[in-house]
Amino acid sequence: MVLTEDPNSELMTRLVDSVKEISTLPECRNVSKKMHDNLVRRVKLLSPLFDELKDNNEGLSEEETKGFELLRTALDSAKELLKLVVEGSKVYQITMIQFLRLNDLRLVVSKSESSHVWNAQTLHRDDIADKFNRITEKIEAALSEIPYDKLNLSEEVQEQIELVHAQFRRAKGRPELQDHQLEVDLAIAQREKEPDPAVLKRLSEKLHLQTIDDLKKESLAFHELVIASCEDPGEWFEKMSSLFKKLKDYVQMANAEADCSGAEKAMIKHRSPVIPDDFLCPISLELMKDPVIVSTGQTYERSCIQKWLDAGHKTCPKTQQTLLHTALTPNYVLKSLIALWCESNGVEHPKQPGACRSKIGGSSITDCDQAAIATLLDKLANGDLEQQRSAAGELRLLAKRNADNRVCIARAGAIPLLVELLSSTDPRTQEHAVTALLNLSINDINKGTIVNAGAIPDIVDVLKNGSMEARENAAATLFSLSVIDENKVAIGAAGAIPALIKLLCDGTPRGKKDAATAIFNLSIYQGNKARAVKAGIVPPLMRMLKDAGGGMGDEALAILAILASHQEGKVAIGQANPIPVLMEVISTGSPRNRENAAAILWSLCTIDSQQLKLVRQFGAEVALKELSESGTDRAKRKAGGILELLQRVDVTGIHGSVHIDGLGIQDRCLAHLLSSREMEVDIEERSAM
């Protein structure tokens, strides 16, 4: 690779910043959401490429620089489009999509009328879908100009970028599926003077115009659109304004109905609200009262899915996938959303027997007693040390009890106050605060609130310096927050991984489990794998793996398997004499452990011929052949890949072109081919989980 004198670090920094800005844009809440989310997801997958090249600090050739400059320009265009979609008028976007796509449903607009639309300089000169497609084409073209094989990239990063490139290539020109119900509803709402409220309800839900605040934001965006037009807005904007007024009147009426008395609600009872599909059990098609999640990630009413399982079924009713286990996990987030929807729509929510009662200070109150919570928060903010400790402890217990409490406590503003108490000099107060945050973080919305309150550095400090109980619960809190991909980066950058490794080594059995779970989840992010390896995680993991009675072998093996996908992780594991213990696990371990051991062994063998030699010396062919026939699907692939490499070495050795302790060019090509194939399958498996 011909290097220039300029290391191009500024270019890589700008690319990293572009991806970061795109990743942190506000959520899209309009009809363009699917196109928006698909583009953001694919762009975020480019991040490891820029991070690795920036860390390498190597110069780029002229050809490479050209490709990355094209990519930077494309990402800048993507960022502007995404901002436009998120911040623009929702009514304008939906009417533009209808105008350009639907000849059979749209109102007839003359050329003179439609010309005003095209004169809005800052908004939508073409169909929104076409804009997204052009951006996709620009990014794909830029990726085609980058010679990956000439860059100093780790194997896994190169393979990931090639897969992302393939995703962009497949997305080019692929039309987005139209929402025919949305199109019909829009045509009716524009055509009729007084549309059916059910039509307006569906439109308001799909446009996310359901509150007075939503209307204010839309009104501002709508008026900015009119101002942006160089000429008289014309009849097209009048049609848009009419549609917006109909939606506004409906939303204001719906909000008023939600606040009316019981007698008033009875008068409008004939207007039955449409229950969102996500709130209905896929089996019974009725509103769920006790939603639970099965191993495929689908949610069902507990009684319905339990009957399904009791009948002997081993598959998910909706997806037909085989269930990995039959455990049912309560979906507290959805249950809370259903309760809120029922309350705002005047629908009686079917309660579970004996639910919704709690105790505070010995008196019985409802789960969402705002006055009681407000009293506790006042003690957190203004009380003495004893009052703060007591209030934090009660909030900890309340947040543990059920989903409704977690929503109410967060809404009341408890999270910033609890974050402040993480720095308390009183160990018990600190324990209560971090554990209360752990319980609140079960709610996905609360996760964002906790991070936005600046909690991550303080939680890491508790993990480093708190009592053992506080450290354990800090580790569990970091795991809960790391479910959100963006938080994995922030937690790793805050220095959590060395502290987690320390807890993994010297914690209680529960603390070690909490630390291992957090490390595993954080290591899904590529940068955290390197942090964990540099912090010295491999030696203690190997000790745990070899300690049959220590109770941490399963966790150690799972973490090693994910670290083995990183170049530095492979090297560190290879230096720890792993072959004997891995072969023992492959021969005698549980199905999941055999799978992870085979994955580690396969990763080592694809880069290091010495590991292949050791595998042969340990007589591994018999165990690997047995695993390739009777293991899990992934274990079969990994074992088969290793056997293929061993056979290849045998063949080339016969012809004298390679010795057992070295791989020739053809062998390395085979190893790379197997590695690419396995990486693609693994990524697909993770996406399906």
From TrEMBL:
GO molecular function, one term: ubiquitin protein ligase activity
CDD domains listed in its UniProt record: RING-Ubox_PUB (cd16664)
Pathway(s) the chain acts in: Protein modification; protein ubiquitination
Protein's GO biological process: cell surface receptor signaling pathway; protein ubiquitination
Keywords: Repeat, Transferase, Ubl conjugation pathway
Enzyme Commission number, as recorded: 2.3.2.27
Superkingdom in the source lineage: Eukaryota
Cited InterPro entries: Adaptor_Cbl_N_dom_sf, ARM-like, ARM-type_fold, ARM_PUB, Armadillo, PUB12-19-like_N, RING-Ubox_PUB, Ubox_domain
Pfam families for the chain: ARM_PUB, PUB10_N, U-box
Domain U-box residue range list: 274-348
ARM repeat ranges, renumbered to this chain: 413-455, 454-496
Keyword rRNA processing listed: no
Reactions performed catalytically: S-ubiquitinyl-[E2 ubiquitin-conjugating enzyme]-L-cysteine + [acceptor protein]-L-lysine = [E2 ubiquitin-conjugating enzyme]-L-cysteine + N(6)-ubiquitinyl-[acceptor protein]-L-lysine
Role, per record: Functions as an E3 ubiquitin ligase.
Protein name as annotated: RING-type E3 ubiquitin transferase
Organism for this UniProt entry: Salix dunnii
Lineage: Eukaryota, Viridiplantae, Streptophyta, Embryophyta, Tracheophyta
